[in-house]
User: Fold this.
Amino acid sequence: MKKKFKCEVDCANCASKMEEAVKKLEGVKDASVNFLTQKFMLEAEDDRFQEILEQAVATMQKVEPDCVIEI
Assistant:
């Protein structure tokens, strides 16, 4: 399953770090965090999508505590 979400990211460097961290999570097929469009895209296993999404959001907030992801 692949879904896009609105996110508020402060800088391109933070977006890059968040993207790298999310891609390392088990079950993630692909992920991208775009600073210019303020979008977060997650492609993950269908049967565990919600669980993986929650892990991804937690991981992103560890990298950048001020980021906001609208689920």
